[in-house]
Amino acid sequence: MTGIRPYKRALDRLQTAGFRPTRQRLGLARLLFEGEHRHVTAEQLHTEAMGTDLRVSLATVYNTLNQFTAAGLLREVVVESGKSYFDTNTADHHHFFLEGTGRLEDIAADDIVVQNLPQPPKGTRVARVDVIVRLAEDDGEAA
Amino acid sequence: MTGIRPYKRALDRLQTAGFRPTRQRLGLARLLFEGEHRHVTAEQLHTEAMGTDLRVSLATVYNTLNQFTAAGLLREVVVESGKSYFDTNTADHHHFFLEGTGRLEDIAADDIVVQNLPQPPKGTRVARVDVIVRLAEDDGEAA
DNA sequence: ATTAATGCAAAATCTTTGCACTTTC
DNA sequence: GAAAGTGCAAAGATTTTGCATTAAT
């Protein structure tokens, strides 16, 4: 037995972060946090919400994603110029990005070794290191 | 003596890539390729062009940057969701990104060691590995 | 002359914002 | 019933596109 139901988990997260657990926020939090880690765009999450009982506007989805990100519940991943992806995995890790499909996949931090990072310019400190392994469809290279 | 004037260099680049050396393209190519390597947005380059004798529309700047990128003369660097940066350095290398100012700085490929890259998912191949070292203003940590 | 490139303005995307209405505490 | 949150539509920001005009071969 887990002892904590998913619903309770999502609720806790919201309250710990100091958010009022409104219907919309709770619904989005459940979609985001109840299953495996995931990468979503606002549009995707909105569509998904519409598919369930949850009625929420796209603007609220954007606002909520931004609030969650600011609160450290989500992390934004920038891989395409015109699009924002939000990652439910806020631990230190990296990404595969499949160009074309726009699919993102996690790479655990220990799976990549980044060494010899040069000193950051004076007056700055390293906030984060993002490694993006861009993938292409591997169609036909066998002779 | 260099033997090749900057103008000629930009012209050669265009022609080698199969572009008609129009006034606009040549002007933009000179702004991009005559000095040191640089990182520009379309907006920046357009503003800069206006500052010189070169009259060119923003749409043409976008088109030109995209054409140059497709031809391998430029490389797009994605670091902020809503903005496209173009890098005149097409060699394998990485970036410092100073959040806040939006400033990009190159890190030579040999200056970072990326090891243990996991196998890419079946049916894909690694097109490129981007390392982005995100920097923050280091205001006051000394006691 | 033919063909490609440019400029403009309009459209397309993605995201944020203002404000009246609704919900939570 | 205060204060915060939501929805909608409008506004912003960035980038692309359609089409008549202009320039390059």
From TrEMBL, chains A, B:
Keywords assigned: Cytoplasm, DNA-binding, Iron, Metal-binding, Repressor, Transcription, Transcription regulation, Zinc
Keyword Signal carried by entry: no
Claim: Repressor is one of the keywords in the record: yes
Primary location group: cytoplasm
SUPFAM superfamilies named among the record's database cross-references: Winged helix' DNA-binding domain
Superkingdom in the source lineage: Bacteria
Quaternary data: Homodimer.
NCBIfam families, A to Z: FeRespRegIrr, TransRegIrrA
Similarity comment: family membership: Belongs to the Fur family.
Protein name (database record): Ferric uptake regulation protein
Species of origin: Azospirillum rugosum
Gene: fur
